[in-house]
Amino acid sequence: MTIEEIDILWITAGLGCDGDTISMTAATQPSIEDIVLGIIPGIPKVRFRNPVLAFEVGDDFLKFFHDAAEGKAGDFILVVEGSIPDEKRNAEGFWAAFGTDKETGQPITTCEWIDRLAPKAWAVVAAGTCATYGGIHAMDGNPTGCMGLADYLGWEWKSGAAIPIVNVPGCPVQPDNFMEVLLYLLRQAAGGVPMIPLDAALRPTWLFSQTVHEGCDRGGYYEQGDFTSQHGKAQCIVKLGCWGPVVQCNVGKRGWMNGIGGCPNVGGICIGCTMPGFPDKFMSFMDQPPGSMLSSQAIQTYGKAIRALRGFTQASLNKEPPWRKRADD
Amino acid sequence: MNTPSGRPLSEKLVEMSWDPITRVVGSLGIHTKIDFENRRVAECHTTSSIFRGYSVFMRGKDPRDAHLITSRICGICGDNHAACATYAQNMAFGVTPPALAEWIINLGEAAEYMFDHNLFQDNLVGVDFCEQMVRATNPSVLAKAEKTEAPHGETHGCRTIADIMRALNPFTGAFYLEALRMSRLTREMFCLMEGRHVHPSTLYPGGVGTVPSVQLFNDYLVRLLRYIDFLKRCVPLHDDLFDFFYEALPGYEEVGRRRVLLGCWGSFQNPEVCDYQYRTMNEWGKAMYVTPGIVIDGKLAVEDLVDINLGIRILLGSSFYGDWENDAPFVTHDPLGNAVDQRHPWNQTTYPTPRKRDFSKQYTWVMSPRWFDKTSGEHLALDTGGGPLARFWATALAGRVDMGYVKATGKSVKIHLPKTANFDECDFEWRIPKWSNTLERDRARSYFQAYAAAAALYFIEQAFKEVHAGRTGVWNEFKVPQEAIGCGFHEAVRGLLSHHVVIRGGRIANYHPYPPTPWNASPRDSLGTPGPYEDAVMNTPLFEENGPGEFKGIDIMRTVRSFDPCLPCGVHMYMGDGKVIQARHSPMFGAGG
């Protein structure tokens, strides 16, 4: 089935910070204007409805969402940003809402919107770690009981087009990672590409199979047993609290924007923000991860020996061959 | 019958709400009663419909994690939170970062101001002034704009004001698209210093993880010069646009106007002076490269950070929270021996109590921060003027800042920008305006981009001095004390920001961040004082040409957006079909309506 026109309905009213929307505006591969202006070939015409960028305000903006909920709109991709609160905890009131119900004058909760829209969506995307797995607002001791979208809808949930929830984690989501996933889905909507490949945590496999460490430019220091206990140095920062060796994320390799920035590659410890166990399983963030105690110890003997041997070779290679000189020397 | 102001009374008020307000960050609604006969807003309530509970779930956590957690408060200025948290951590842990670390943080935060003001001004606020919008709200103004030559047309390339408006049309306007691209360049600059946008990876208590090198600062500098080249067109373009609105719509200065009650908590530490000790806070506060201060009725009333700190009060009033007035205080006295109020953030406890929305009782998740003025005994509803207006006003009046590229004169701030690819060197001067209103908040946002860029030139020079001298340390070690208190003061992009922490048993016992939006978007407090958005909207005349049927509320939207709302921290307006909800025959406007 080929879809020629599609709406992207983006709800930022989970418990979030809008950081994933802002991140999306940073993307260049592709950029939001590439999608909206129809510059990328082979995708449907896109109508983009995101509250941070919309021309429309209030009811004029909510109409897109009401129409979709009532089945009056065409195909749409629902993007959810922010974690989903447990509204059943309270006798009255709400934790998170989006727009006002004209009949009651009360806010329409984010949960009600998801209940209305998800069953009618062509695909559902969770943008950022709050929406995928609960994230920072689902930290131990939180009052709202919030959770990820798959926790709310069910991990086996599938859209009418038989597409599982697509999780793009990251706190916030890496800009190009998100736009690339959206582009894949748009191609899939246009027909001609297979079902988006997802792992057990519903992450696109081509973005989240490698660990940070496997792509980290400080991995060489690790191999040589060269660890720093000071921030701002070039060496491996595992002892400062970096979880890169076990965290699935491509930022160390891809950088944050146009190859610039990132986490351990530029001196920031990996705090595991793409992972379902974030944040609790990584706290205290600035302590060395217990699992790295053994490996960073075990690598010392090999690493130091290799570093010394490489030092000899390097010293030799830093000298030119002896024949490069003037004949009269 | 007349109101005390002599204005004829309206008989009919129409309920108009906009929820959600788009083109802001976070969940905001504005609920108004509008007097169409007299073209005024009679009443306004603002609502925020999201609660997350940072102060609740941070209790008992490791205080070293505070900056990594609180960055997540905001998705557009999270780094301001992270930086402010490290300032509070530094005080609590008793650590001072090396000078180079401060220059790196200043460069990162300067890039954040450049990015955020740029994106917000031209991709969010700009749409309220674009051709598509003005055609829908004020066709006669558009017709006039078509015939009005832009005074700086030769510089920015738009011949008429209408050409500027077209350039701002979303996704098709040339300037809209250029600003969007430029916001990526400045975010790259940010990432060079703080690792990731918008939740930084390389900020820590004690300094940064960023590895300093000649390359790092060169990479930043070449991007900065491209951005400055853009600014030389950007600032005159906005001046032309905003000046045109004053001229085309006489009386527009009253839109969004409120009493001059501005707060600025200061930005950009000076490492030669700043040691993060509470006892010396007044000294290092005055050495900041944006000067902290409270401006009351145009006068610089407060300059000391200690006084600023002690005057903060958190009132409840119309928000969905229980009170903590009977709880034992965490901090009775500050390190100087001054008494700390029970309603101060150090002593606050957050008790969320979700309720139905009721405009006569509780209606929002935003509390009401106020500043207690000992002189008058008033709890002042300070606003931030969207950030730049308060920063400029306080800095200009204090007359302390002099970086060569930026100089405060006592009544203005002069900004010097060097030669760039397409333009010679040039000077801008921000002068204290006659009003604290919608257009001046927006204008200051353009000028502050130049301020941040010029300041960054100075910071780069200082950073190079350190690197060339071989002083490349960027982090100092610290120990977390068992018992401590700390506070951080900073300027988030949209205005004043404070973080207050209490540490007991080596863990966080209490943590309260106060970003700008609770100040600006606060509801009526327990004393009945409306928050700044409510206040600014309530006083606003309406110039839109549409009646209730097609009403867009553009003058209200411009007012609310001039504050640069960011409500992951709250306003609600619902725009229904314009049903008349009440008929009035009694005084309304003068009497605090």
Quick tags:
heterodimer; A: 329 residues; alpha/beta; five-stranded parallel β-sheet; two-stranded antiparallel ribbon; 11 helices; B: 593 residues; alpha+beta; four-stranded antiparallel β-sheet; 17 helices; 17% strand; disordered C terminus
If you had to describe this structure to a student in words, what would you say it looks like?
The complex is a heterodimer of chains A (329) and B (593). Chain A has 329 residues and is of the alpha/beta class. In chain A, 30% of the residues lie in helices and 10% in strands. In chain A, the strands form two sheets. Chain A has a five-stranded parallel beta sheet, with helices on both faces. Chain A has a two-stranded antiparallel sheet with strand order 4-5. Chain B is α+β, with helices and mostly antiparallel strands and 593 residues long. Chain B has helices at residues 54-57, 66-70, 78-93, 99-125, 131-137, 139-147, 153-156, 161-167, 174-194, 214-248, 281-286, 305-311, 388-398, 438-468, 516-521, 532-538, 554-562, and strands spanning 12-18, 29-35, 40-47, 203-204, 207-208, 261-264, 293-296, 299-302, 312-315, 321-322, 351-352, 368-373, 378-380, 406-408, 412-417, 426-431, 484-492, 495-504, 507-514, 580-583. In chain B, strands 3-2-1-20 form a four-stranded antiparallel beta sheet. Chain B has a three-stranded antiparallel beta sheet with strand order 6-7-8. Chain B is globular and about 65 Å long. Residues 1-9 and 569-593 of chain B have low confidence and may be disordered. The chains are: A alpha/beta (329), B alpha+beta (593). At the A-B interface, helix 1, helix 2, helix 3 and strand 4 of A face helix 4, helix 9 and strand 5 of B.
